[in-house]
Each structure stands twice: as structure tokens, then as C-alpha cells.
What we know:
- It contains four helices and four strands.
- The chain is of the alpha+beta class.
Amino acid sequence: xxxxxxxxxxxxxxxxxxxxxxxxxxxxxxxxxxxxxxxxxxxxxxxxxxxxxxxxxxxxxxxxxxxxxxxxxxxxxxxxxxxxxxxxxxxxxxxxxxxxxxxxxxxxxxxxxxxxxxxxxxxxxxxxxxxxxxxx
Length: 136
């Protein structure tokens, strides 16, 4: 039974054993104990048995990174340009709005200031009265 002498792994509360074809399969605790008693090597990490698979995955990710790196770089540049343009448009829009409102209010500046102060005093008074009613 050469199959029992294949490496045994314990990872995340489960037992695994490498098969003759290189596949790693889950096994029961009893089978793992029997394999170790029979002389099967116990490996501390499952990754030791998956070295080649890990290398293949690493190469694939590296190749994918080369392909997508350029696209992500272009997308980042476009996104940055949109953000900068939006910020400039926002500031210019606020400036134009202020100029328009100031032009419309300037003949009525005294009345506008009086209305703003009155609304502020009314708002503070209402909030104070409501807070006292709530706490009463």
C-alpha cells in the first residue's frame, strides 16, 4: 500500500493527503492517523504540497497584472481628469451663482440683511421654545 505513505497535511481543522496523481484530497482523522502510523510523512502546511500549483497561479496573476496594469493606469488618468474638471466646474459654478445673487440683491441690500437677521433670530427662538417644551 504505497498510497498510505503519501504525505499527510492538517489545515484549518481538516486532514488532507496527496494522492499518487498529485491531487490533494480530504481524508478523515482516522485515515490520517493510520497513514501517519504506517510511516506517511506529516507536512505542517498544505502549501508545501501545493507548491507547483501555487507557482502556476502566481505566474498567471503576474501575466494578468501586466495586461491589466496598463488599462488601470489609463483608467486612473481619465478618472483624475474627470475629478479635476468637476472640481473646477463646481468652483466656477459657485462663483457665477454668487455673482448672480449679489447682482440681484444689491439694490435691496439693506432689506436683504434685515431679512437674513430676522430669519436667524426667528429660527433660534423657535428652536429654543421647542427644546424647552420637549424638556418640560
